[in-house]
């Protein structure tokens, strides 16, 4: 039989069982329109309407009424504690009709646990008093077994009875629970019952020695069971902590046991957090922008992680790099929110699993399709319309497909019909994702992924620009990419794991720029990653992998040269040189890495690692060692630190002739950080961290754009601190507040240190969501950042040949834009029916209509300038139905 470890000499035992439930996902959508006030006015009209009320049914969870012991298949003798996490399907009669292994202990233990669990009997779950089917998670524990006792003496010794005492408490508050029922049953058939006193204490004497099961239950709480082996004549003490019966309007959370952290800083979002943040319309990748250390780029674009260049950040989807994060530079991300499983952000000091970048990493993971029947989500809002369908096909195969298309072109066309805007604009985006998951065994998974995205925009200037005659005609372009990935995962006994992914992708860039030029480029991408995780012992875990990336560039470009990454000023297009290039070249970047997780003592985790990368386009390689450590001072307090070297190849556009320098080399950075994490309660936590980055050999443009146009002649330094207070989804509320104090500087060759144009001294972000009940939910988000530096225009000169004025720049980065501030609000009402639900939401971005400046537009002679206003107040009304 499965038995718990022995308790001796009045040693108190404390154990808890975590009941788990799948997360309810109510995504909200978010977006960014291209500064069109009239389109925003149309949105505001859509926000008016009435919303009905509906009652929420009263739900009660199933209760275990008959427990069946599993036969322990392990050999005789001492063994360690083991557990198997199961997912149980319970019908309306309380019988277990199906069981699946979610977390394995071994094949033999898995089989024993499933056999026993299928014989469990429950008091069924109820909805308004009516029994209904339910699905729960159950952890079956096979207790440690001590060495065999010595043979008994020849003379029989009378067996003394055992005793059990303890206290029953509320898990969240720790308060004692009075008048709780405590039942002790033994394998010998004995049954003993008592109630707790006013202090939550209980004691039962005269219990038969041997394996026993202690079950505590109380009104308004979920029962908890504790397995013990009672020694003769010994008092065994136990503390049982009961969870409160779930609130129908509370956020449901699924507990996850995470692997030991490899990085010093890892910011992750739960599903409820990912899809309910105000101002994001349920977009998890937009919610990342509110986390510590995330600066705001102008007009969307790649997030700025701890003061680095946006180009220095890489976005991964299932381990493969993707070319973009957002549609239209910040409108919405390219992945349907309900397809995402996790989003992790590493602002610096990331693991050797990631390479080729100096700044930070954002990694998104897709979930497997559901296997409990046909499900679907249909959603429509002012900005886009989407559809998701998923279903199992047999016992081992499941599929999911999602697609989305923007509605912006219809909105803008309506505005254009109402008033002459002077331009013809038709922006359109679409994206799709599909997942096919096949699990031939509990240890194997094969997945086929396909996803893609498209953005197109066209503007026709009816009259030439007064300041630059080159700006006339049609401007626009289309950016499309597709990816297909085949992945295989195998989990070995003992926790080891093998993952392999093969990815092929294609990106197409087509654009026209009036009289200025044209671009037509295609990039074929091959990516392969194979990673082995080996658990050598409880104190040693080794991760090793191969990481290959190859890009083939083919196409042509005609127009002006690539502008510098930062520090430039507006320049008349008519005065710039015209270039034309054709490309047909592979860029191969193989890499390999190895990392260890070492626990010399239980509280200390040391993670040394090294990564090697090579770029055949510039014929250069790099070896980057990294080290991180975490020490658990207590169960609630952890200190952490890390240091590492990071390398990045130059942008291919900066290398290609005749617009770049083929002799460019890799840039390198040193990252260092240290901090503390404090767990205040199960849901509430705080963290504080300091960080620094030192960059060497950054690519910068040559003065006045002279050949070789780009050189490795810039240094950088970034330092600052972050603070985060976070309340995870528990009860009816979740939220977090983050603050970053930071300085980002650069030094050009032979020049003093100056501000980097991504520097934002103060970054404050916060969000909160509260469920009012009866399907109502409200939320708010706030964001404040210091204005970014820029190089001012001090005067201009007249070019008689081109008949245009050219600006003269002042001291580099000597001026700063005004601060950015924004308040977003969200309200949602959900109606729940027997088989489906309907939600209506209103997401208001920039609710205070703050005139956030996004730069300047200048007069033809640069004598006058006008601030370009950012996004005005933008209400988005949407409907979402879920099956």
Quick description:
With 883 residues, this protein is mostly beta strands. Helices cover 5% and strands 54% of the residues.
Structure, described:
- Helix content is 5%, strand content 54%.
- By secondary structure, it is mostly beta strands.
- It folds into 2 domains: 12-25 and 60-147 and 158-244, Carboxypeptidase-like, regulatory domain (Immunoglobulin-like, Sandwich); 376-625 and 674-695 and 713-882, Maltoporin, Chain A (Beta Barrel).
- The chain has a 22-stranded antiparallel β-barrel. Strands 1, 10, 13, 15 and 17 form a 5-stranded mixed beta sheet that branches.
- Strand 33 (497-513) and strand 34 form a beta hairpin.
- The model is unreliable at 1-54, 252-260 and 419-423 (pLDDT under 50).
Summary tags:
single chain, 883 residues, mainly beta, Immunoglobulin-like, Maltoporin, Chain A, 2 domains, 5-stranded mixed β-sheet, 6 helices, 55 strands, 5% helix, elongated, disordered N terminus
